[in-house]
């Protein structure tokens, strides 16, 4: 049988991939998707823990976190759109007009 | 112990099977002729206008973003409906508050004309 | 190698592979599709852990609606991945970021291995639907009684997101005669394409 | 049927939050029907005054409600008062600036109210789930407010950078909560405290990993040093009143939750105080050093807010009731004189075509004696000079540190304050002693911003001489559930 710690390790690996994606990717939308991936990895960890504790709290919390992720996605994409209408680039590095 | 999921598995296999079969047949047995207007994208018989590359007008995104937010509201209604009988009046008032708050958002959208399709 | 472990291994490989492919892609449309595949694989893991309801919600709401919105926005912005993304950031900084993240993941994996996790799930996972774990009934019962306050908070969060999305994304002609902040009006090509 | 007697559904506990919500609803609905410019600001003003009154009236009724999700104790109410007062001042502060920039949309006050409500939710709970949701309700409006000047590229950049950092921090915070939940079986801090010894013995690794991830999450929010890179760009890009709000309210909310989690929840994990020791020293020093070379008053205030976060983190390192009350005292004092400083900056930037660079300051003293005097007062308070409340704030903090044996931490703190005095005085020198050829464009005052200037100036000096009131307030605002 598959122990819960295996699921936890998968969650952590996905979380790590998301972190790498955020740090390395240069396209705003891909960076945004990596953050969503990290949120889902945390959801997977929550469900794995809730499974090993035989307690349902984790499930209710994951359900609420999906709402948070949706709200964040909506606002984030609205901001990306506002930027794109002002300028044509989505590349995160070119945003350096404020460098000190 | 996966018995409960065999029907779903079977459904997935049959669906993908049929789709792949159709594609397979059309590729290997289909009659091929590449000349003239046959290669044009099909626009109900009219001569196609513009290219697939020109950008979609921006005003469609507003509907998409607001759909997501109200989709989440509907998803909350589903578990509520499952146990609304057990929750009784308490559950009703609870969901009423939830819907009223989002109704304020909806009236705000209507008033601000965010979905206006000029 | 029971069926259960087989499904676990397959979905983990699919999830991790498509997550890495998502980052490496040049074309953002392919990235979104890889993320959807990764999420479907994660949903299989949810179901294996007994979270039947959440697995279906993940696919219907998350992969189905939110990532489709990403796809929609990418189509809207007409991104083909061929924009010139400026010069690549120096290899050294990328390597350090990579190594830091790997160390971070190894650290957490070590924490999990040393941690004590109740092995109670050795029993069959999927057939827990009957014992009332992970079904809609239990999640709903908990969500609408104990988590009443967070439930109402999510409606306020959604309202804030609605107002935010409308403010940021709505086209306002009043903005055109703008303040001294404006350094550059939207480029000509974009205005023509606005439709 | 399900019994709700034990639920403790008592709306009295969340009366201020409900008042804020109703005001935001009224603003949104009216703004959607008619385009009355000044109308939303008046409604928001009334709403905030009512909220302030409600939270003061709620003082010292310690109870928890809503299935234990809300724990309304003096600590939470003190922050409710701080948040409503802050957003009241920011509302008055920014009104004229928004009109000058042509971005006085009605949604500004509605988002400000919703964000304040999110902070109140965060500060008044001991449940990690509600803290996470409160954090999100606070952050989403702030992402939008940062990018409010939609046509300006700086504001767009501020919005996207703040959003990415915020979402990144929330992901870490969520993973941290997952680990803490896995270790303790509950997200309720009080039950974690109850059996912390059992948890750390069996699941020690998890609780430490969870605490570390939560610390990373909040480190971003509070702009502690390793996670502060986003601060200067966002603070300078966002419209000035929004920057004023950024530099005070979310930081105070972040510290409120960190105090609850780390000093109340994980009090027994000794290693945390050493981690905070290092973090606070790093944050203080880097914040001050980076602020030395700034040419713009707004950027200078941004870096100084990082340094001040470092001073407050001393309380987290020291721990104990003495440190918590010193932290609350410092947060209130910091809110007063920092908002005052930003009021002056907003006044300077309302003049069309002017930024708040050092090169534009000369001649301020000549043309506006009172304004430059108030600016000098705020700079002295930020630097921690004796007559002002800034000195007392630092004094109590470092006294608490020394009392519980953190001598070196206090010494480094004092040295950092001396270092910070240098760049604060540069502002005073620029406005008083330097001269420049082109004339100083006059500043236009409005009653609202004059009121803010007077309140903050009187607060800075008044509390400097008679701190008993504030001291008593912060002494009694300790966790009821300690």
Number of domains of chain A: 1
**In angstroms, what is the radius of gyration of chain A?**
17 Å
Following the backbone from N to C, one meets helices and strands of chain C in this order, namely HHHHHHH
Spatial gap, N to C terminus of chain C: 58 Å
The CATH class label of chain A is Mainly Alpha
Please tell me the CATH architecture of the domain at 3-82 and 89-127 in chain C by its name: Up-down Bundle
Q: How does this model look, in words?
A:
The complex is a heterotetramer of chains A (100), B (118), C (195) and D (482). Chain A is mainly alpha-helical. Chain A is 77% helix and 0% strand. Chain A has three helices and no strands. The radius of gyration of chain A is 17 Å and the shape is elongated. Residues 96-100 of chain A have low confidence and may be disordered. Chain B has 118 residues and is an all-alpha fold. Chain B has a domain at 56-118. Chain B is built from three helices and no strands. Chain B has helices at residues 6-29, 60-82, 84-112. With 195 residues, chain C is mainly α. In chain C, α1 (3-24) runs antiparallel to α2 and α2 runs antiparallel to α3. The N and C termini of chain C lie far apart (58 Å). Chain D is an all-alpha fold. Chain D has a two-stranded antiparallel sheet. The model of chain D has no long low-confidence stretch (mean pLDDT 86). The chains are: A mainly alpha (100), B mainly alpha (118), C mainly alpha (195), D mainly alpha (482). The interface between B and C is large, with 45 and 49 residues.
Provide the fold topology.
The complex is a heterotetramer of chains A (100), B (118), C (195) and D (482).
Chain A: H1 4-24, H2 28-53, H3 57-86
Chain B: H1 6-29, H2 60-82, H3 84-112
Helix pairs in contact in B: 2-3
Chain D: H1 15-33, H2 39-57, E1 63-65, E2 70-72, H3 74-101, H4 107-123, H5 128-146, H6 153-184, H7 189-194, H8 196-202, H9 204-222, H10 231-237, H11 240-265, H12 271-292, H13 297-318, H14 321-350, H15 364-367, H16 369-383, H17 389-403, H18 407-432, H19 447-465, H20 468-476
Antiparallel strand pairs in D: 1-2
Brief write-up:
The complex is a heterotetramer of chains A (100), B (118), C (195) and D (482). Chain A is 77% helix and 0% strand.
Key words describing this protein structure:
heterotetramer, A: 100 residues, mainly alpha, Helix Hairpins, 3 helices, 77% helix, elongated, disordered C terminus, B: 118 residues, 64% helix
């Amino acid at each position: 049988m598959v122990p819960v710690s295996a699921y936890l390790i998968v969650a952590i690996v996905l979380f790590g991939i998301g972190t790498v994606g955020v740090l390395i990717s240069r396209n705003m939308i891909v960076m945004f998707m990596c953050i969503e991936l990290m949120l889902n990895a945390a959801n997977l960890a929550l469900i794995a823990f809730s499974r090993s504790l035989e307690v349902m709290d984790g499930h209710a919390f994951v359900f609420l976190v999906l709402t948070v992720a949706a709200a964040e996605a909506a606002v984030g994409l609205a901001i990306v759109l506002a930027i794109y209408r002002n300028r044509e680039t989505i590349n995160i590095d070119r945003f350096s007009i404020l460098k000190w | 112990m996966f018995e409960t999921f065999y029907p779903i598995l079977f459904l997935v296999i049959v669906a993908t099977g049929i789709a792949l079969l159709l594609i397979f047949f059309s590729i290997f047995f289909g009659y091929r002729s590449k000349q003239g207007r046959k290669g044009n994208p099909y626009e109900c018989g009219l001569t196609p206008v513009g290219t697939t590359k020109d950008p979609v007008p921006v005003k469609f995104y507003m509907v998409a973003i607001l759909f997501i937010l109200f989709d989440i509201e509907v998803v909350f209604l589903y578990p509520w409906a499952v146990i609304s009988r057990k929750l009784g009046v308490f559950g009703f008032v609870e969901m009423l508050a939830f819907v009223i708050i989002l109704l304020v958002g909806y009236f705000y959208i209507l008033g601000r004309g965010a979905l206006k399709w000029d | 190698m029971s069926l259960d472990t087989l499904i676990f291994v397959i979905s983990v490989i699919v999830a991790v592979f498509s997550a890495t492919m998502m980052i490496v892609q040049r074309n953002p449309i392919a990235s979104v599709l890889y993320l959807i595949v990764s999420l479907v694989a994660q949903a299989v893991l949810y179901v294996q852990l007994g979270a039947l309801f959440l697995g279906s919600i993940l696919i219907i709401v998350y992969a189905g609606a939110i990532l489709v919105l990403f796809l929609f926005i990418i189509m809207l912005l007409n991104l083909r991945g061929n924009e010139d993304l400026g010069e690549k950031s120096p290899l050294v900084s990328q390597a350090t970021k990579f190594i830091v993240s790997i160390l971070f993941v190894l650290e957490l994996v070590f924490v999990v291995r040393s941690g004590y996790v109740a092995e109670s799930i050795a029993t069959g996972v999927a057939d827990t639907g009957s014992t009332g774990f992970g079904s809609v009934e239990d999640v709903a019962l908990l969500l609408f009684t104990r988590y009443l306050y967070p439930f109402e908070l999510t409606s306020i969060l959604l309202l804030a997101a609605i107002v935010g999305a409308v403010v940021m994304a709505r086209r306002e002609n009043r903005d055109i005669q703008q303040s001294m902040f404006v350094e550059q009006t939207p480029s000509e090509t974009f205005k023509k394409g606005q439709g | 049927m399900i019994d709700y007697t034990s639920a403790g559904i008592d709306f009295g506990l969340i009366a201020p939050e409900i008042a804020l919500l109703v005001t935001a609803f009224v603003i949104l609905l009216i703004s959607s029907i008619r385009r009355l410019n000044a109308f939303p600001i008046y409604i928001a003003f009334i709403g905030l005054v009512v909220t302030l009154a409600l939270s003061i009236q709620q003082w010292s009724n310690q109870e928890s409600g809503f299935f234990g999700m809300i724990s309304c104790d003096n600590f939470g109410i003190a922050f409710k008062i701080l948040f409503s007062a802050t957003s009241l001042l920011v509302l008055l502060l920014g009104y004229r600036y928004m009109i000058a920039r042509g971005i006085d949309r009605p949604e500004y006050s509605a988002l400000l109210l919703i964000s304040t409500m999110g902070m109140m939710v965060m500060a008044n709970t001991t449940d990690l789930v509600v803290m996470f949701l409160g954090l999100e309700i606070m952050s989403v409006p702030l992402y939008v407010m940062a990018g409010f000047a939609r046509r300006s590229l700086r504001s767009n950049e501020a919005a996207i950078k703040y959003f990415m950092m915020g979402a990144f921090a929330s992901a870490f915070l969520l993973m941290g909560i997952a680990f803490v939940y896995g270790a303790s079986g509950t997200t309720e801090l009080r039950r974690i405290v109850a059996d912390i010894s059992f948890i750390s013995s069996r699941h020690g690794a998890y609780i430490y990993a969870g605490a570390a991830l939560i610390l990373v999450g909040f480190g971003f929010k509070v702009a502690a040093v390793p996670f502060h890179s986003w601060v200067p760009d966002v603070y300078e890009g966002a419209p000035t009143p929004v920057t004023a709000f950024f530099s005070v309210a979310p930081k105070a909310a972040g510290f409120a939750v960190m105090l609850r989690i780390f000093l109340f929840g994980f009090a027994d994990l000794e290693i945390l105080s050493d981690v905070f020791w290092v973090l606070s020293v790093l944050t203080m020093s880097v914040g001050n050093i980076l602020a030395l070379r700034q040419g713009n008053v707004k950027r200078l205030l941004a870096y100084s807010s990082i340094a001040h976060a470092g001073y407050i983190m001393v309380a987290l390192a020291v721990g104990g009731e003495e440190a918590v009350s010193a932290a609350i005292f410092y947060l209130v004092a910091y809110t007063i004189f920092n908002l005052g400083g930003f009021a002056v900056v907003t006044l300077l930037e309302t003049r069309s075509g002017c930024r708040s660079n050092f090169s534009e300051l000369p001649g301020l003293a000549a043309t506006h004696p009172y304004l430059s005097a108030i600016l000098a007062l705020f700079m002295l308070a930020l630097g921690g000079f004796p007559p002002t409340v800034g000195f007392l704030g630092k004094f109590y903090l470092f006294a608490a540190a020394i009392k519980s044996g953190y001598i070196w931490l206090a010494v480094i703190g004092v040295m950092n304050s001396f270092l910070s005095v240098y760049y604060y005085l540069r502002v005073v020198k620029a406005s008083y002693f330097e001269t420049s050829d082109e004339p100083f464009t006059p500043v236009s005052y409005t009653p609202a911003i004059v009121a803010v200037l007077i309140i903050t100036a009187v607060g800075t000096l008044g509390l400097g001489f008679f701190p008993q009131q504030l001291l008593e307030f912060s002494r009694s605002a300790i966790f009821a559930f300690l």
